[in-house]
Amino acid sequence: MNVQEFALPDLGEGLVEAEIVRWLVAVGDAVHVDQPVVEVETAKAAIEVPVPYAGVVTALYGDAGSTVKVGSALISVASADAQETPRLSEPGVTTSPNLVGAGTTKRARRQRLAAPSGQQPAVSSTVPVISPVVRKLAREHGVDLRSIGSGPEGLVLRKDVVAAIKGTEGTRIPLKGVRGVMAERLSRSRREIPEATVWVDVDATGLLLARQEINAADPARPVGLLALLARFCVLGLRRFPALNSTVDNDEIVLSEAVHLGFAAQTPRGLVVPVVKDAHMLSTRDLSANLASLTGLARDGKITPAQLTGGTFTVNNYGVFGVDGSATIINHPEAAIVGMGRIIDKPWVVDGQLAVRKCTQLTLAFDHRVCDGEVAGGFLRYIADCVEHPTALLGDL
C-alpha cells in the first residue's frame, strides 16, 4: 500500500491559509484524480479543493472551522491494487478510474485502514460532536466546543451549544474570510481616502422604456438596469479618465482599461466581483457577465482573481428599497457610482407637472484625483444618459 499525503496547495493572490468549511469525503471513501474533497474559505472566496491522487482516504487533517496553512497536510490517500478495490455496495464509496476490479470485503478494508503507524498517518483528533449540524451551529455563533460536552465521553449535544449561545451576550460573527476582507477594505477606504460625494435626482422614464425595447428585440439575452448603468459609466470614464484611477503613494495611476466592479450581496456577505475589460464588451455581453459573476458569488464558487483588479465600481442599492446612500469607495479605486430605487414622483416636463419614474444617482470620489468640476461633470453625463438613453448613439 502506498500512502500519499496531499498538502493545501498555493491558492494564489498571496494567500497563506484557508479555513475548512466542510469535508466532501470521509475516511474510507474511494476518490479519483481531481475529485473535490474539501471546501475551504480563504480571504478572497470559497473554493473546492481537488485531490491529485486516486485511492482510499486514510486520514483527514483538520475539522470544519479549523485553519490550515498552505503547505500543511490536508488529506492522505492510499493507493490500492485491483484486489483491494472497495466494493461498490459499501456506503460512501465511489468508483475511480485508477481503482479497477471488485470483491474487496469490509473486513479487508478495515485491515488496510488499520495498518501499523509508519505506513499511514493517524486521523487528527477533534472534539466529538453529535452531528455536523451542531458543529456548524457552534461555528456560526463562535461557541468553543472544547469545554461544553455533556454527553458520553464529552460528546457535544445540540442542547450544549444552545445553552452556550444563550449564555453569551449577543451573537458573535467572526470577521474573517470574505467578510473580513471587505471589512478591512472598507475601513482602509475611510482611513486613507479623502472622500467627497455628489448626487442628483433624475427622470428614469426614458431608461425604463429603452430597456423594454432592448429586451423585446432579443428576449433570450436580457439587459438589466445595472448593466445599463455600467454601460453609461464606461462611456463616462472615457470622457473623465481621472475617475478610472488609483493613488499610489504620491502618484495618480490612470488605467487605460475599465475593469468594472459591482457590489453583490451573498450569504457570506458583500463581495465586489470584477468584469475585466468592460470597455470591450457590448451592453448585452456586459449584462451576461454581471449575471454570471453574481451567480458564482452567491454559490460561493467565485475565484480570488474574479474579485480583484477593479478600477471603478457601480452599485444598484435601489434593490434594497432605498432612495440614496453615502457609498464607500472600494479601496484602492478612486470612485463609485450608486443608483437608488426607481419610483413614481411628480416631475416638471415641458413646463407641465407630470408623474415620472425617478431615481437618485450618487457619486463618491477620491478628492485627490479630481475636483468637483470633474466629478460633477461625470455624474451629470451619467444622469443625461439615464434621462436620454438614445443620446448614447453618438458615442457608440
From TrEMBL:
Residues in Peripheral subunit-binding (PSBD) domain copies: 129-165
Keyword Transferase: yes
GO cellular component terms given for this protein: cytoplasm
Cofactor(s) the protein requires to work: (R)-lipoate
Domain named Lipoyl-binding: residues: 3-78
UniProt KW Glycosyltransferase keyword: no
Annotated family: Belongs to the 2-oxoacid dehydrogenase family.
PANTHER family assigned to the protein according to its UniProt record, in alphabetical order: DIHYDROLIPOAMIDE ACETYLTRANSFERASE COMPONENT OF PYRUVATE DEHYDROGENASE COMPLEX, LIPOAMIDE ACYLTRANSFERASE COMPONENT OF BRANCHED-CHAIN ALPHA-KETO ACID DEHYDROGENASE COMPLEX, MITOCHONDRIAL
Name assigned to this protein: Dihydrolipoamide acetyltransferase component of pyruvate dehydrogenase complex
The organism of origin for this protein: Actinocrispum wychmicini
